[in-house]
């Protein structure tokens, strides 16, 4: 699991585009485009709201920032899973993280089958979603301490 997490964490920074589709849009802060004025009410002459989409309360980071944060979390989990004192807590947090990632994979699959989806994205996201289940089970199984002959590398 640690090797998988390290590889995935590295990919978050080498190829962030691989993860763009699985960050749900409602989590992403809508920053104004460079050179575009902020159209919030504080920037209008009479303080009236303009037609700007309301942001979800969880939209605190941009899509790229979410990708970087999740890469850092995976890096931390890779280390935490290897350290016996933090293994159980890390495995529990990792199970929660993989479970939370389900929302992004479902959202990506729904969008892949939407009007702007492509056959390639449908295939990719149809394969990625079911892979979360074994990851969740595997992470949960790591809550048990590794005993002799159970992954500790020490034989009786």
Structural write-up:
The two termini are 23 Å apart. 55% of the residues lie in helices and 0% in strands. It is globular. With 156 residues, the chain is mainly alpha-helical. It contains 5 helices and no strands. The longest helix has 26 residues, at 87-112.
Describe the structure in brief.
This protein is 55% helix and 0% strand. The protein has 156 residues and is mainly alpha-helical.
- pLDDT < 50 stretches: 39-52, 152-156
> What is the straight-line distance between the termini?
23 Å
How many separate helices? 5
Main beta sheet: strand number and arrangement? none
Rg estimate, integer Å: 20 Å
Helix content class = 55-70%
In round numbers, the mean pLDDT is 83
Strand-pairing-aware structural class:
mainly alpha
Succession of helices and strands? HHHHH
Q: Give the number of DSSP strands.
A: 0
Indicate the overall shape.
globular
Q: What proportion strand?
A: under 5%
Which short descriptors sum up this protein?
single chain; 156 residues; disordered C terminus; mainly alpha; 5 helices
What's the arrangement of secondary structure elements?
Layout: H1 2-14, H2 17-20, H3 63-82, H4 87-112, H5 119-141
Helix pairs in contact: 1-3, 3-4, 4-5
């Amino acid at each position: 699991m640690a090797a998988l997490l390290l590889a995935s964490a590295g990919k978050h920074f080498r190829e962030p585009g691989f993860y763009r589709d699985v960050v749900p849009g409602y989590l992403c802060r809508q920053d104004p485009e460079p050179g575009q004025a902020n159209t919030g009410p504080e920037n209008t002459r009479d303080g009236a709201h303009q037609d700007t989409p309301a942001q979800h309360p969880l939209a605190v980071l941009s899509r790229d920032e979410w990708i970087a944060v999740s890469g850092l979390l995976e890096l931390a989990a890779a280390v935490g899973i290897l350290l016996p004192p933090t293994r159980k807590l890390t495995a529990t947090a990792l199970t929660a993280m993989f479970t939370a990632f389900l929302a992004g994979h479902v959202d990506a699959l729904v969008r892949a089958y939407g009007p702007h989806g492509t056959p390639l994205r449908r295939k990719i996201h149809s394969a990625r979603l079911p892979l979360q289940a074994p990851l969740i089970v595997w992470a949960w199984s790591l809550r048990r301490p590794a005993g002799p002959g159970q992954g500790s590398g020490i034989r009786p």
